[in-house]
Amino acid sequence: ILTDLRVPHSYEVRLTPYTTFGAGDMASRIIHYTEPINSPNLSDNTCHFEDDKICGYTQDLTDNFDWTRQNALTQNPKRSPNTGPPTDISGTPEGYYMFIETSRPRELGDRARLVSPLYNASAKFYCVSFFYHMYGKHIGSLNLLVRSRNKGAVDTHAWSLSGNKGNVWQQAHVPINPSGPFQMTSH
Predict the structure, then answer these.
(1) What are the tens digits of pLDDT across the range 34-93?
(2) Is the full-model pTM beyond 0.70?
(3) What is the number of domains present in the chain?
(4) Within a domain: residue 25?
(5) Is 22 exposed, middle or buried (0-12, 13-18, 19+ CB in 10 A)?
(6) Residue 15: inside a domain, yes or no?
(7) Domain MAM, which positions (predicted)?
(8) End-to-end CA distance of the chain
């Protein structure tokens, strides 16, 4: 057990095995110690939507409509044609993703917002990486906001993309520098 490690520092760890025959060859590794941000307890740095708890994200109760968790097997058969992804990023029909229908009955200005769990992070800089699929004639904007929790609930715009980007999953990497505990919202 390694204790007293501090983020964001690097450490050299040396291990020497001992057996009844004596000491073995030493191994040395450099460990870069950072805190991931994709789970509330910061113990896991990856979030997939396979679990129906959607990684601790919640629907904002003040928005106009909600994101839905679905896969190719649970898609609404009445979904607008030529919109949305046929599968999740894995390409398998069983893989889940979060989806919003931006066609009718949606109107300009309607918002569907997901809110992340609160991250009690201590590092100053992070990179939020996620996949998005923006396909269809009525695509609006996808926005990522960082909600600082040490000064009330102040939202800072971190990333935005608008319009049809084709029937393909793409990846975004967004640098953020929260000033303390924070949440991410997407709409």
Answers:
(1) 554 443 443 345 778 888 888 889 999 889 999 999 999 988 877 787 788 999 998 999
(2) yes
(3) 1
(4) no
(5) exposed
(6) no
(7) 45-187
(8) 41
Q: Quick check: is 162 in a domain?
A: yes
Tell me the residue type at 107: E
**CA 47, 49, 50 angle in degrees (round to 5)?**
110
d(CA 44, CA 34): 11
In a domain? residue 90 = yes
What does the pLDDT read at residue 36? 46
User: Tens digits of per-residue pLDDT, 151-184?
Assistant: 667 788 999 999 999 999 999 999 998 888 888 8
CA distances 109 to 64, 76, 137, 157, Å, are: 9, 23, 16, 17
Q: Which CATH number belongs to the domain containing residue 61 in this structure?
A: 2.60.120.200
